[in-house]
Amino acid sequence: MSALPLEPADLADCDCRPASRDLGAPVPTPSRRALLRGAALAGATTMFGSAAVTLGPALGPAAAASVRRRPTPAIVVISLRGAADGLSLVVPHGDPVYYQSRPGIGIAASALVGADGFFGMHPAMAPLLPLWNSGKLAAIHATGLPAPNRSHFAAMEELEDADPGSSRRVGWLNRLVGNDNVSSTLQGLVVGSSVPTSMVGPEPVMSFASLDTANLAGGDRESDPRGRRVQALRTQWTGRTTMSRGFREALDAVVDLDPARAQRDRRRLYPEGDLGDALSSVARTLRANLGVSAVTVDSGDWDMHLGLGHAGGGWMKRNAGNLASSIAAFFADLGSAGERVTLVTISEFGRRVQENANGGLDHGWGNVMLAAGAGVKGGRYYGTWPGLQNGLDADLAVTTDYRSVLAEIVAARTTASPAQVFPGFQREHLGFMTGQ
């Protein structure tokens, strides 16, 4: 990162403070499905290494994920934390204002990959060309929240809750898990250090930092080849109390990951870094076909107020290259399982059109979303282009509500109704998914 100084004006619209969660927010009312599947759990996850099971507030037995089932379609969401610059990831080289506004960081049209007469991808996105050329990768531009929100944490909360005006703190992926016709303790999966708002709610969610460490302490095959620790814990928690049933559900979820841990580890395919680590764990889990249908993974460090990079180099080049290489490796790792997996990228907002004095970009509004994998009609750019304005406070305007992108994937790839996942929202049909 560049060591150029930041002036107060550069950070005037920057909300870069640690996130604070409102733990007093209203607790979601459990659905009938949550009453059948959920279970409360308090303190029991200390037994489970790095894994945790966030469970609904009611009680009841859970279906074992290890039961043989038909292949489950899955949606994988990569959150580009820090507000990625969509105008660098997918460059509108056909809009002359782009080059007028970015004399130091603009990317030459001749360097772009997957280019048409107006758009092209950052040259570091070249690892995605096989997906693009095979029609498995699409880009939807000028997407975002319906109104600007330049606070990282407020915007991400709004984006992931996706239910404006509601007093219930339930994320859109948790609603998807609750309405999709899949039965598994592992249906909702978070790979990372914390559970994002998109997965918060009454439905059970499994989270772990790494598949290899998501296990029962002292219960691995080497330490306990006969499974006596698991058997003893089941005996210990045979009661009918909320805690007992919750513990058994958590134990089931961790034990049910065994087939995923047995999958071949192809981490060598991925670039170094947290995103490659996370997607490697996700690929092994999805290849095991355990009933996982909704996954969320974070890719951080996109808040490029300075030192973004000259002519497509630097910080943006590193991030874009890591993102592209990780996604390409993910689909290579999935193999035939990739035929049932759809991946989408999302970020809380975009960046300003005009570069700042520090060779970076301040908080903006519109952005780009990438969709890859099953059901995607790729090899082209979607959305309505609003045109760029050159000015210090100019934003890329949003012409496509981000929920329309997500809702089209939900409609095409799940049994859930978009109206249940995005209450009160009338989606626009964009056509980047088959059947939509």
What does this structure look like?
- The protein is of the alpha/beta class and 436 residues long.
- The chain has one domain (63-215, 257-421): Alkaline Phosphatase, subunit A (3-Layer(aba) Sandwich).
- It is built from 13 helices and 12 strands.
- It has helices at 32-37, 86-89, 96-101, 129-133, 152-161, 172-179, 228-236, 242-255, 258-261, 274-287, 314-334, 402-413, 418-421; strands at residues 52-54, 74-80, 90-91, 120-121, 137-144, 188-191, 205-208, 294-299, 341-346, 367-373, 381-382, 400-401.
- The strands form 2 sheets. Strands 1, 2, 5, 6, 7, 8, 9, 10, 11 and 12 form a 10-stranded mixed sheet that branches.
- α10 (274-287) packs parallel to α11 (314-334).
- It is globular, with a radius of gyration of 22 Å.
| Overall structural domain count | 1
Kindly, what is the distance between the CA atoms of the first and last residues, rounded to a whole number of angstroms? 42 Å
Helical element count? 13
Strand content: 5-15%
CATH architecture: 3-Layer(aba) Sandwich
Number of beta-strand segments: 12
Summarize the amount of helix as a percent range: 25-40%
> In the CATH hierarchy, what is the class?
Alpha Beta
How many whole angstroms does the radius of gyration measure? 22 Å
Major pleated sheet:
10 strands, mixed
The succession of helices and strands, N to C, reads: HEEHEHEHEHHEEHHHHEHEEEEHH
Shape: globular
Spans where pLDDT lies below 50 across 5 or more residues: 1-13, 17-49, 55-68
Q: Work out the oligomeric state of the chains in this entry.
A: single chain
Secondary-structure-based class equals alpha/beta
CATH fold type: Alkaline Phosphatase, subunit A
If you average the pLDDT, what whole number results?
83
